[in-house]
Design goal:
- The protein contains two helices and 41 strands.
- It is 8% helix and 47% strand.
- The radius of gyration is 30 Å and the shape is flat.
- With 481 residues, the chain is mostly beta strands.
- About 14% of the residues have low confidence.
Amino acid sequence: MRRLIDGNKRVISIFSIIIIGIIAILVLFIVFSFFNTKEEYYVSSGAIAYDMEYDQIKIDSEGRIEKKWDGNYYLYDNEDNKYNLGSQAIVYDVNKSTLNVFGNIYKVLSDGQVEKYTGNNKISNLNDDFIYKLADRKYVITGGRIINQNNSLNTEDFLIAVLDKSGNTLLTNNVLNAKTINPMTIYTASFGFDVANEKLVYENQDIDLKKIIGSTNNYVEKEEPIGQEEIVAEENDKEGSGGNEGGDNIAANGQNATINSTENTINADLNVTNNNSSGGLSSKDVIKKSTLSKYIEVRNVTVGASYIDINYIINDPENKYQVVSVTVESTNNFQRTISLDKNVTSYRIADLNPDTQYQLTFGYNEILAGNSVSSVVHSVQTVKTKKVNADLQITRLTFSKIYFTLKLDTDYVFSSGKLAVYVDKRKTEEVNIDIEEAKKSKGWSSSVKYESGTEYILRLENLKYNDKSIDYVIESKFKKY
């Protein structure tokens, strides 16, 4: 009888262990499934993504975005290159003119209410005037026209604004990449955004955006004395102007606004209206500049693949500015200093490299009392030249030849170059590029011989632009499996 009881106990123990093991396996399976559920999105060809440093990543063919366990989104292109986009990823679909923002975002409404969205947030109508807070000191602004107080910023559809703790701001979108070191107010047709103070003026509603998920912004406004270089509004419309002496209030819809520009304090009655046909700012008062005032204004900076255009105004009636210049620098030891003519308003800096970041330092030498000379840095901007819009595609593979099509950017046409064939990372063939055919709308379609292998790469090499060597990678790959 004792043996029978002992045998039953043994069976029950084994059965219990099996049940516990099954439960443990089920729990592990559930936990594994929970932590490995893929949040995956596909991105169409031609889209532009932004990495953690807000540098552009052009997606030449379809890519995918995955959210990983660390909370960050990662972009994988068709060659399995991996890019960390951060906890809030931004992708602009050029073909559809839509903006996808991944992660938690906060949409600010005109009455001060905030709507929270998560996951893949698609903004389809970029003409609508809205501001979205992505994270601490990070914003996206949408609108049909987006400008600042002196129109040196003039763009459309969307603008990414990223502040550092001192209030300096990186401004970027698909056509712009610049950094401002001066306080700036950004306007759409519906609101004004005092960037450094993170304040939104929506009609008569002042909204403190710092209160949305908090802010580590340490910017403090500096009080600057108003001297003889003050620009004042002509007193032909005193109604509704209100008192705003010595302030720096940002207001809209006919209310007085005081804006600190780079060199001058401007008191002007700025009127932001919803029915303005131009979609931007209008002024009720005519701004009258004193004949003795001197000032420098960098109105806007635009970029191409090989050039930077500067539009500026230099007002110097007493010839106090000895030299006004801009110094252009890049990380590859490039530096060039250019004197700006006071009698013209634009200058093109040419022969630059594509897809390269340049710092523009505007400065001047000023003649002081006693004929002494003072060197002053006026402002600093960072811009990035555009990528070359060239396309090289392998179209067909036969027993002995690789067929391809090459289309060159008509705004950046190479003067010469080679098309090289690599088989398993070994160069096997090289031919001259037919530049004239490649810059046509249909491109240059041809073929080259190849040796048997596994991975094939067509790459443009020895490229020259205006007989200057260009280090720029354009290639197409094909791999046999």
